[in-house]
Amino acid sequence: MGKIKQGILGGFSGKVGTVVGSSWKGIAVMRGIALHVANPKSDKQLVVREDMIVLQKFLCSMTSFIRIGWKNFAIKMSQMNAAFSYNHANALQGTYPNIAIDYPNALVSRGQLPGVLNGTAASTVAATIAFTWLDNSDEAGASDTDKTLICIFSPAKNQAVTAIGLATRLSNSQAVTVPSSFSGDLVHCYIAYETEDGTVQSNSSYAGAVTVA
After folding, report:
1. Tell me: the pLDDT tens digits for 143-161?
2. CATH number for the 43-211 domain, one of 3.40.47.10, 3.30.420.140, 2.40.420.20, 2.60.40.10?
3. Among residues 189, 195, 191, which one has the least CA distance to residue 203?
């Protein structure tokens, strides 16, 4: 039986007919009770499931990074849900069953801070990715103290390596060590900025696909 906690116009908790009331992040929400699905493997359902599986493997490998990079877009939802929503609409390619991440169009960070200028990645030293970029701290809204947010994703290992605040916009370069097991892997590299106090982030920039030395 459902209980109304704030009067007839308030939210409720518990089950009322085919609806369940609850609270999430202080917001009264309702959800329908799942009904029996005649065909749980329709073409449309299979596509949706495959989309979610592909996105989950990518984004959930970098959960802590997403919580930072998407913190200002978690409006009545989690940072991960915000990242899922954007990347589902903008960073998937192919048709079922060959759905894949469109890595150059994926965002692992999103925000209003000016982004990276000419960010690139390369690997010539074993288990090391070298990032370079140009200083654009004179751009409106940017600062030479803005900190880097770096993310390296290996599809082969389904693992991400992240580096937070190891360099600044003024530094122009940063080397990031990855596990030796990444040697020979093709990895996808991203770089973004956040303000020195960590309150504002930039959109991530795709720094390229690199084979780890």
Report:
1. 999 999 999 999 999 999 9
2. 2.60.40.10
3. 191
The whole-number pLDDT of residue 3 equals 52
Angle ∠(198,204,210) on CA atoms, nearest 5: 125
Nearest to 126 by CA among 184, 166, 174: 184
Q: What are phi and psi for residue 73, nearest 5 degrees?
A: -115, 10
DSSP string over 129-171: EEEEEE--TTSTT--TTPEEEEEEEETTTTEEEEEEEEEETTT
- Domain locations along the chain: 3-32, 43-211
Q: What is the pLDDT of residue 24?
A: 64
Per-position DSSP letters for 160-196, written without gaps between them: EEEEEEEEETTT-EEEEE--GGGTT-EEEEEEEEE-T
Q: Which helix (H) or strand (E) holds 30?
A: strand 27-32
CB atoms closer than 10 angstroms to residue 135: 14
Is pTM beyond 0.90? Reply is no
Query: Would you say residue 8 has pLDDT above 50?
Result: no
